[in-house]
Structures are given as structure tokens and as C-alpha cells.
Design brief:
Number of domains: 1
Number of strands: 4
Keywords: Disulfide bond, Redox-active center
CATH superfamily: Glutaredoxin
Protein name: Thioredoxin family protein
Active site: 10, 13
Helix content: 40-55%
Disulfide bonds: 10-13
Organism: Pelotomaculum isophthalicicum JI
């Protein structure tokens, strides 16, 4: 699984990145997690508000830091898709 946090490094962007890492650890799962700070790359996802969460090249959230439960649901749903 490929997870990207899009954002220029604001506090909420960093918080979302840490939440992703924490949820993966709690689920005992691994993923390629990256924090994209390049504006051109962020805009390539048609994201106008950060932080944004991209999972397997699909924008799942934009402009909000979700609750940990919501984030866990998103990640779990993607894990189920891979079988």
C-alpha cells in the first residue's frame, strides 16, 4: 500500500503523517508512507486544501485532519481491497 500525506509541512500535515504511522503500527501493517511537500506534485492530485491523504493514488481526504477512527477505517478499507 502506498500512502501520501500532501502538505507543505504545516502542523496539521505533520499531525496527519504521524497519525498514519501510528495507525499502521496499531494494525501491525506496513505501507510506503511519504510526505509530499512539493506544490506541483500536490496540485497534480487536484488538491486545493491541505492536509490531504492519498492512498494508492486516490485522494481520500482533503483539508481536514480526521479522527483516528476515521483514518483507521480508511486504511482498513484499503487493506481489505488488496485481499
Amino acid at each position: 500500500m502506498d500512502i501520501k500525506v500532501l502538505g507543505a509541512g504545516c502542523a496539521n500535515c505533520n499531525k496527519l503523517e504521524q497519525m498514519v504511522i501510528d495507525v499502521l503500527r496499531e494494525l501491525n501493517e506496513e505501507a510506503n508512507v511519504s510526505h509530499v511537500k512539493d506544490l506541483r506534485e500536490i496540485l497534480s492530485y487536484n488538491v486545493m486544501r491541505t492536509p490531504a491523504l492519498v492512498v494508492n493514488n486516490q485522494v481520500k481526504l482533503s483539508g481536514v485532519v480526521p479522527s483516528k477512527d476515521k483514518l483507521r477505517d480508511i486504511i482498513t478499507s484499503e487493506l481489505k481491497k488488496r485481499g
